[in-house]
């Protein structure tokens, strides 16, 4: 069974989940390096990329580069598994940059805290949803650190939206959002849109879709596509009767840390003009895919799909630019003042609601 990664959460499924993750080597682990196994893993990685990477022409270039370096002895001399995986990742990125493509040790980015070498356990990741409530009169606020589709989060999000329906403004803070799936968006969209419409196109490589089936989200509708692709539209079906949220002003706070599924939402908001984006340009991780075992203790995240707003080209490598560009740390102040909060109060609320996680671009 192939494992598909939703941001930092690892979900095993019979069909591929949309994976929106920045795959890196697990922190704090020491792995015994086996040169023969490492080289076998590179050979398998080349084969897997060639079969499944979203763009077949680029896939061939990746595979050729790995095989050429392997044949030339370019992967000889390593003594450390983490350094080896990072070197292979760097070689792939040198061929064609991709916000998700990476080799890492089995386990990848884990939702469980790992013990640091010689130190205390690493702090657990933040909750997927934080600080949901009224931040000021008539202004609802919620922060997302990831869209992991957990039933308890979806229930809490729906209850928050229903409880605060009637607010004039909704502020969604995605400045520390690392990615995920579509379920949280599918809780939000039927409430905030007044008419049915597509908000995203998702192209999956046909060879992957033929083996694994369609992406497992009920809001996706299959549409015609070229033979090499399996194309779905992410569609909105508004609730009936219409929610009071259709009349609310929405601000979406972004940063260079805002990645993957959070960019899917950003692009949907910007394309439909349903929300105002405030902050800085997002991470530029616009492909989705899955994690595959390579053997020898290695895995890789291989993008097999590409997302883009209808009529647009997507945000891979470029990010989604905000409507109002300010330092991410100032984004909430900007949103609050635009919503009518006095400057001094906006400053105080921004300090109180400042994310604890990083808003800087993620590095490999």
UniProtKB/TrEMBL annotation:
GO molecular function (one): serine-type peptidase activity
GO biological process, one term: proteolysis
Residue intervals of the Tail specific protease domain: 126-327
Residue stretches of biased makeup (Low complexity): 107-121
Region (Disordered) location: 107-127
InterPro entries linked: ClpP/crotonase-like_dom_sf, Tail-specific_protease
Classification via Pfam families: Peptidase_S41, Peptidase_S41_N
Keywords: Signal
Signal peptide positions (record): 1-21
Protein's recorded name: Tail specific protease domain-containing protein
